[in-house]
Amino acid sequence: MERSPLAETSGFAAIAGGLGCTAALPDALAGLAHRYGGQLATAVIAGREIEYRCHQGCVCDARGAMGSPTMQAARGLLAVGSPGVPVRGRSPIARGLVAEQAVAVCLTGCVHNGPALRQALVERGALVGDGGQAELLLHLMAQSRQRTLVNRLVEGIERIVGGFSLALITDELAVVARDPRGFRPLWIGARVDGHVAASDASALRSLGADEVRELAAGEVVLLEPGAPARSLRPWGVFPRAACALEWLSFAPVGASFEGLSVHPVRHRLGRALAASSPAQTDLVLALPGACATAALAFAQQAGQPFEIAFDPSQQSQGGCGPHELRAMPAVVRGERCTLVFAPDTPMDLLRGAVRGLRDAGARMVHLRCFGPLQASECLYGMSLPTPAIAAGVGAEPLALQGWLQADSLEAASLEQLTTALGRESTGSCMLCLGGHAPLLARDAVATPQLPLFGGDGSGA
Fold first, then answer.
1. At residue 167, does pLDDT exceed 60?
2. b vs e for 190-205, b when ≥16 Cβ sit within 10 Å of the residue's Cβ?
3. Which residues of 262-407 form beta strands (DSSP E)?
4. Are 113 and 157 a contacting pair, CB within 8 Å?
5. Residue 292 is inside which H or E element, if any?
6. Distance CA 460, CA 449 (A)
7. Could you read off the pLDDT of 272-311 as tens digits, one per residue?
8. What are phi and psi of 156, to 5 degrees?
9. pLDDT of residue 70
10. Greater pLDDT, 49 or 298
11. Residue 179 and which of 90, 108, 309, 366 are 20 to 30 A apart at CA?
């Protein structure tokens, strides 16, 4: 099964509207900062011109692209941005011509049948490069015999099997889509000057977007400047397969996914973990990042004080290295500490945090994971740290505890996660946590497509 060649591309933002709307693209990308390490790529289409830039610095470096002469001269503008950088020469955004139209595509997730698609395209004469999964979609659209661009897109997506969400832009419209099982999240919203779409609702609300809603699994939405959004449902109903890590660590704590708010899920897990795996300590601490809610709930259940132990001026978990977490001696010196962390925490970062606490004078450090420990890499396109088992630490929790230099190590169970998710646990993907895998290689078969437009060229 093909892993995502763009593991750093964990989200995207797309905009269709006037200059003011498109110039907000960097702000939308800034709202996705928790999903990536700070580097990104942008593509803007005005007429037949595609202006692509890879920004090696922070989001602020993308603002120059939004004021280019190409954009200033355009009337209707469309743009897509991806928090990711080229991997082995690949671009997070694929660009090219389809039926004489300039097109840019960003895809986050994983195309399971990518190798088979690539082989089929080559056999039909396509010059497929190493541009990643989004490039495959462009070639599928180019080889389609459908007359409209949207029909070409839907026919191309129909041949893709995997967990993904995507955005496509031309000089006329933006199209966003979510796979029929709903692995990856996708939200759309409206502004006075256009439409916006992003992998997180927080990125849209930061732009003042109204009517923000989550796309349903298998939904395709057409966003045209100056026109209402149009929703299509070209596929049949499939079993849902939402990613459990969205609730645990990917989404911001104020977000919701599949109609279920993130905060109560993490709160329930923290309380359940404290009840099942208590530690006789003086303080409860949270690893920087997505852990504060679970750690606070753990402390409430355990009847222990919750403290901020790491220097708040440092970067959050997504940007820290293993030696960058400095604990504050005034907080932990002489104390027995429980450190709460997320399932996808890099093990070297966690080990560095334990070392930082001990260097600051902590007497004991007990580790508690508010989800099941990560058991494998993600097969559905998310960038996860190498599991401790694969790194050679060992499959036994005791061996991992020793490697982390912790006094104890406990994690929430799959049963506790299922209880915390409630009805949303049905069908949710928990493969990397040792649980349910909704789509495997043997399931990679074409999905039935329902008719969209007639052959008279109606539609986009």
1. yes
2. bbebbbbbbbbbbbbb
3. 283-286, 306-307, 336-341, 364-369
4. no
5. helix 292-302
6. 18
7. 999 999 999 999 999 988 899 999 999 999 999 999 999 8
8. -65, -45
9. 59
10. 298
11. 90
Helix (H), strand (E) at residue 187:
strand 187-191
Instruction: Indicate the residue type of 22.
Output: T
Q: Which of 106-115, 198-207, 319-328 has the lowest mean pLDDT?
A: 319-328
The confidence score (pLDDT) of residue 286 equals 95
Please give the helix or strand (H or E) that residue 256 lies within, else none.
Answer: strand 256-257
- Give the model confidence (pLDDT) of 396-421 as tens digits: 677 888 889 999 999 999 999 999 99
Mean pLDDT of the chain: 79
Contacts of 257 (CB under 8 A, 6+ apart): 185, 214, 242, 246, 247, 251
Q: Provide mean pLDDT across the span 322-331.
A: 79
Answer for the pair 38, 51: CB distance below 8 angstroms, yes or no: no
By the 8 A CB rule, do 368 and 410 touch? yes
DSSP string, 385-410: PPPTTTTTS-SSHHHHHHHHT-SEEE
Residues 6+ apart with CB under 8 A from 25: 13, 15, 42, 62, 66, 79, 81
* pLDDT interval class at 93 (50, 70, 90): confident
How far apart are alpha carbons 175 and 219 in whole angstroms? Answer: 11
Q: Are 245 and 428 in contact (CB under 8 A)?
A: no
Write out the two tokens for 402. 């020793």
| Token pair for 284 | 């409860």
| Cβ-based neighbour number of residue 358 at 10 Å | 17
pTM: 0.81
Question: Which residue matches tokens 């922070």?
Answer: 58
Mapping DSSP to helix (H, G, I), strand (E, B) and coil, where does residue 304 land? coil
Whether 281 contacts 336, CB under 8 Å: yes
CA angle 205, 346, 283 (to 5 degrees): 85
Can you tell me the distance from the alpha carbon of 47 to that of 104, in angstroms, rounded to the nearest whole number? 13
């990518």: which residue's tokens?
114
Q: By percentage, how much of the chain surpasses pLDDT 90?
A: 28
Cβ(1)–Cβ(25) below 8 Å: no
Asked whether 139 and 98 are in contact (CB, 8 A), the reply is: no
